[in-house]
Amino acid sequence: MFYVVGKIRYISDLILSHQLNMKAIKITSIVLIFLFFASFKPKLQKTIIHGKITTFNTISVANAEVTSKKTKTTVYSDSLGNFSIVCDLKDKIMVKAAGFNTASIKVKSLEDSLNVDLVIIGNEKKIDLAMETGHIHKDQLNLVKKYLEAKKQYGFGFMNMTDLIKGKFPGISIINDELVIRGIKSISNSGSLSTRNGALIIINGTEYNWNAVKSLDVITVKDIKILSSAKAARYGSGSSNGVMVITLVDE
Questions:
Q1: pTM of the predicted model, to two decimals?
Q2: In the CATH hierarchy, which top-level class contains the domain 46-153?
Protein backbone atom coordinates (compact mmCIF):
# COMPACT_ATOMS: atom_id res chain seq x y z
CA MET A 1 0.00 0.00 0.00
CA PHE A 2 2.69 2.46 1.01
CA TYR A 3 4.61 1.45 -2.08
CA VAL A 4 1.68 2.35 -4.36
CA VAL A 5 1.08 5.70 -2.64
CA GLY A 6 4.76 6.54 -2.92
CA LYS A 7 4.73 5.66 -6.62
CA ILE A 8 1.73 7.89 -7.23
CA ARG A 9 3.41 10.82 -5.46
CA TYR A 10 6.56 10.24 -7.48
CA ILE A 11 4.62 10.28 -10.75
CA SER A 12 2.72 13.44 -9.65
CA ASP A 13 5.99 15.19 -8.83
CA LEU A 14 7.34 14.26 -12.27
CA ILE A 15 4.25 15.63 -14.01
CA LEU A 16 4.35 18.86 -11.95
CA SER A 17 8.06 19.25 -12.63
CA HIS A 18 7.46 18.71 -16.34
CA GLN A 19 4.67 21.29 -16.37
CA LEU A 20 6.86 23.83 -14.57
CA ASN A 21 9.71 23.19 -17.00
CA MET A 22 7.38 23.65 -20.02
CA LYS A 23 6.06 26.88 -18.55
CA ALA A 24 9.60 28.13 -17.96
CA ILE A 25 10.58 27.18 -21.51
CA LYS A 26 7.54 29.00 -22.89
CA ILE A 27 8.32 32.16 -20.91
CA THR A 28 11.97 31.99 -21.90
CA SER A 29 10.99 31.62 -25.59
CA ILE A 30 8.69 34.65 -25.44
CA VAL A 31 11.43 36.75 -23.81
CA LEU A 32 14.00 35.64 -26.41
CA ILE A 33 11.62 36.44 -29.30
CA PHE A 34 10.89 39.88 -27.82
CA LEU A 35 14.60 40.63 -27.39
CA PHE A 36 15.30 39.43 -30.94
CA PHE A 37 12.82 41.80 -32.55
CA ALA A 38 13.63 44.64 -30.15
CA SER A 39 17.24 44.53 -31.30
CA PHE A 40 16.20 45.60 -34.79
CA LYS A 41 15.40 49.29 -35.26
CA PRO A 42 13.34 50.19 -38.30
CA LYS A 43 15.51 51.70 -40.99
CA LEU A 44 14.40 55.12 -42.21
CA GLN A 45 13.81 55.40 -45.91
CA LYS A 46 16.51 57.57 -47.42
CA THR A 47 16.90 58.97 -50.91
CA ILE A 48 17.93 62.00 -52.96
CA ILE A 49 15.22 64.61 -53.48
CA HIS A 50 15.38 67.50 -55.92
CA GLY A 51 13.98 70.97 -55.53
CA LYS A 52 14.08 74.62 -56.49
CA ILE A 53 14.47 77.77 -54.41
CA THR A 54 12.75 80.98 -55.49
CA THR A 55 11.50 84.26 -54.15
CA PHE A 56 8.16 85.78 -55.13
CA ASN A 57 7.42 82.36 -56.69
CA THR A 58 9.25 83.22 -59.92
CA ILE A 59 12.75 84.56 -59.25
CA SER A 60 15.51 81.98 -58.71
CA VAL A 61 17.63 82.19 -55.54
CA ALA A 62 21.20 81.01 -56.13
CA ASN A 63 23.80 79.81 -53.61
CA ALA A 64 21.21 79.24 -50.86
CA GLU A 65 22.33 76.84 -48.11
CA VAL A 66 20.14 73.71 -47.93
CA THR A 67 20.65 71.40 -44.92
CA SER A 68 19.09 68.07 -43.92
CA LYS A 69 18.66 67.84 -40.15
CA LYS A 70 18.75 64.02 -39.98
CA THR A 71 21.44 63.20 -42.53
CA LYS A 72 23.55 66.28 -41.62
CA THR A 73 24.00 66.95 -45.35
CA THR A 74 24.46 70.47 -46.72
CA VAL A 75 24.27 71.54 -50.36
CA TYR A 76 23.87 74.85 -52.20
CA SER A 77 21.41 75.85 -54.91
CA ASP A 78 22.80 76.50 -58.39
CA SER A 79 22.38 79.66 -60.50
CA LEU A 80 18.81 78.60 -61.39
CA GLY A 81 17.89 77.85 -57.78
CA ASN A 82 17.95 74.05 -58.27
CA PHE A 83 19.36 71.64 -55.68
CA SER A 84 19.56 67.93 -54.83
CA ILE A 85 20.05 66.57 -51.31
CA VAL A 86 20.08 63.23 -49.47
CA CYS A 87 17.38 63.12 -46.80
CA ASP A 88 14.96 60.86 -44.90
CA LEU A 89 11.20 60.69 -44.95
CA LYS A 90 9.85 63.15 -42.35
CA ASP A 91 13.24 64.88 -42.39
CA LYS A 92 13.45 68.62 -41.78
CA ILE A 93 15.11 70.74 -44.46
CA MET A 94 16.49 74.15 -43.53
CA VAL A 95 17.08 76.77 -46.24
CA LYS A 96 19.18 79.86 -45.52
CA ALA A 97 20.15 82.83 -47.68
CA ALA A 98 21.32 86.31 -46.69
CA GLY A 99 18.49 88.85 -46.83
CA PHE A 100 15.76 86.20 -46.51
CA ASN A 101 13.88 84.61 -43.64
CA THR A 102 15.14 81.06 -42.96
CA ALA A 103 12.69 78.44 -44.22
CA SER A 104 12.03 75.09 -42.52
CA ILE A 105 10.24 72.38 -44.53
CA LYS A 106 9.20 68.89 -43.46
CA VAL A 107 9.76 66.17 -46.05
CA LYS A 108 6.37 64.50 -46.50
CA SER A 109 7.20 62.53 -49.64
CA LEU A 110 10.41 61.24 -51.19
CA GLU A 111 8.85 61.18 -54.65
CA ASP A 112 7.76 64.81 -55.00
CA SER A 113 10.09 67.73 -55.70
CA LEU A 114 10.69 70.22 -52.90
CA ASN A 115 9.98 73.79 -54.01
CA VAL A 116 10.83 76.50 -51.49
CA ASP A 117 9.81 80.16 -51.85
CA LEU A 118 11.92 82.39 -49.60
CA VAL A 119 10.55 85.62 -48.15
CA ILE A 120 12.57 88.86 -48.11
CA ILE A 121 13.11 89.92 -44.50
CA GLY A 122 11.29 93.17 -45.10
CA ASN A 123 13.04 96.07 -46.80
CA GLU A 124 15.08 97.06 -49.86
CA LYS A 125 18.37 96.93 -47.94
CA LYS A 126 17.86 93.19 -47.50
CA ILE A 127 17.32 92.85 -51.25
CA ASP A 128 20.64 94.63 -51.84
CA LEU A 129 22.27 92.23 -49.35
CA ALA A 130 20.83 89.27 -51.23
CA MET A 131 22.33 90.60 -54.47
CA GLU A 132 25.72 91.33 -52.90
CA THR A 133 25.96 87.78 -51.55
CA GLY A 134 25.11 86.26 -54.93
CA HIS A 135 21.58 85.06 -54.19
CA ILE A 136 19.87 87.40 -56.67
CA HIS A 137 21.26 88.41 -60.05
CA LYS A 138 21.77 92.16 -60.41
CA ASP A 139 19.62 92.19 -63.55
CA GLN A 140 16.65 91.18 -61.40
CA LEU A 141 17.26 93.68 -58.61
CA ASN A 142 14.73 96.30 -59.73
CA LEU A 143 12.08 93.67 -60.47
CA VAL A 144 12.47 92.15 -56.99
CA LYS A 145 12.07 95.58 -55.41
CA LYS A 146 8.88 96.19 -57.41
CA TYR A 147 7.56 92.80 -56.42
CA LEU A 148 8.31 93.55 -52.77
CA GLU A 149 6.30 96.77 -52.95
CA ALA A 150 3.43 95.05 -54.74
CA LYS A 151 3.42 92.21 -52.21
CA LYS A 152 3.00 94.67 -49.36
CA GLN A 153 -0.12 96.02 -51.04
CA TYR A 154 -1.86 92.94 -52.36
CA GLY A 155 -0.09 89.60 -52.64
CA PHE A 156 0.78 89.02 -49.00
CA GLY A 157 -1.16 86.10 -47.57
CA PHE A 158 -2.78 84.99 -50.84
CA MET A 159 -1.67 82.01 -52.92
CA ASN A 160 -3.66 82.72 -56.09
CA MET A 161 -5.98 85.26 -57.73
CA THR A 162 -9.17 83.49 -56.65
CA ASP A 163 -8.15 83.69 -52.99
CA LEU A 164 -7.01 87.29 -53.40
CA ILE A 165 -10.28 88.50 -54.91
CA LYS A 166 -12.47 86.59 -52.45
CA GLY A 167 -10.34 87.83 -49.56
CA LYS A 168 -10.23 91.48 -50.64
CA PHE A 169 -13.79 91.68 -51.97
CA PRO A 170 -16.26 89.49 -50.00
CA GLY A 171 -19.13 90.97 -52.03
CA ILE A 172 -17.92 89.27 -55.23
CA SER A 173 -18.94 85.75 -56.25
CA ILE A 174 -17.34 83.71 -59.02
CA ILE A 175 -20.11 81.96 -60.97
CA ASN A 176 -19.56 80.13 -64.27
CA ASP A 177 -16.18 81.84 -64.74
CA GLU A 178 -17.69 85.28 -64.26
CA LEU A 179 -17.42 87.84 -61.47
CA VAL A 180 -20.80 88.70 -59.98
CA ILE A 181 -20.83 91.80 -57.80
CA ARG A 182 -23.37 91.69 -55.00
CA GLY A 183 -25.88 94.54 -55.18
CA ILE A 184 -25.67 94.94 -58.96
CA LYS A 185 -28.53 93.40 -60.94
CA SER A 186 -27.08 91.26 -63.71
CA ILE A 187 -28.35 91.70 -67.24
CA SER A 188 -28.51 88.37 -69.09
CA ASN A 189 -26.61 88.56 -72.35
CA SER A 190 -24.77 86.14 -74.56
CA GLY A 191 -22.24 86.25 -77.34
CA SER A 192 -19.12 88.38 -77.41
CA LEU A 193 -16.59 89.03 -74.66
CA SER A 194 -18.03 92.50 -74.04
CA THR A 195 -21.56 91.20 -73.30
CA ARG A 196 -21.80 89.06 -70.16
CA ASN A 197 -23.72 88.43 -66.98
CA GLY A 198 -20.71 89.15 -64.79
CA ALA A 199 -18.55 92.20 -64.31
CA LEU A 200 -16.31 93.59 -67.03
CA ILE A 201 -12.63 92.84 -66.34
CA ILE A 202 -9.96 95.36 -67.34
CA ILE A 203 -6.24 94.57 -66.91
CA ASN A 204 -3.86 97.45 -67.61
CA GLY A 205 -6.48 99.12 -69.82
CA THR A 206 -7.40 96.03 -71.87
CA GLU A 207 -10.50 93.83 -71.54
CA TYR A 208 -9.94 90.21 -70.45
CA ASN A 209 -11.99 87.28 -69.17
CA TRP A 210 -11.81 85.43 -65.85
CA ASN A 211 -9.46 82.74 -67.20
CA ALA A 212 -6.88 85.44 -67.88
CA VAL A 213 -7.24 86.73 -64.33
CA LYS A 214 -6.80 83.23 -62.85
CA SER A 215 -3.52 82.82 -64.72
CA LEU A 216 -1.98 85.92 -63.10
CA ASP A 217 0.55 85.59 -60.30
CA VAL A 218 -0.61 87.56 -57.26
CA ILE A 219 2.78 89.21 -56.92
CA THR A 220 2.30 90.94 -60.28
CA VAL A 221 -0.82 92.77 -59.04
CA LYS A 222 -0.32 96.34 -57.91
CA ASP A 223 -3.93 97.37 -57.36
CA ILE A 224 -7.53 96.22 -57.87
CA LYS A 225 -10.60 98.46 -57.95
CA ILE A 226 -14.29 97.59 -58.23
CA LEU A 227 -16.37 100.18 -60.11
CA SER A 228 -20.13 100.50 -60.39
CA SER A 229 -22.74 102.98 -61.58
CA ALA A 230 -21.32 106.20 -63.01
CA LYS A 231 -17.66 105.26 -62.46
CA ALA A 232 -18.13 102.06 -64.43
CA ALA A 233 -20.10 103.71 -67.24
CA ARG A 234 -17.01 105.12 -68.92
CA TYR A 235 -16.06 101.57 -69.94
CA GLY A 236 -19.13 101.37 -72.21
CA SER A 237 -22.26 99.26 -72.39
CA GLY A 238 -20.51 96.12 -71.16
CA SER A 239 -19.99 97.77 -67.77
CA SER A 240 -23.63 97.54 -66.66
CA ASN A 241 -22.76 94.65 -64.30
CA GLY A 242 -19.82 96.54 -62.80
CA VAL A 243 -16.12 96.67 -63.65
CA MET A 244 -13.04 95.17 -62.03
CA VAL A 245 -9.94 97.19 -62.87
CA ILE A 246 -6.63 95.40 -62.28
CA THR A 247 -3.33 97.25 -62.44
CA LEU A 248 -0.14 95.20 -62.74
CA VAL A 249 3.38 95.97 -61.58
CA ASP A 250 5.56 97.49 -64.29
CA GLU A 251 8.48 95.21 -65.10
A1: 0.50
A2: mainly beta
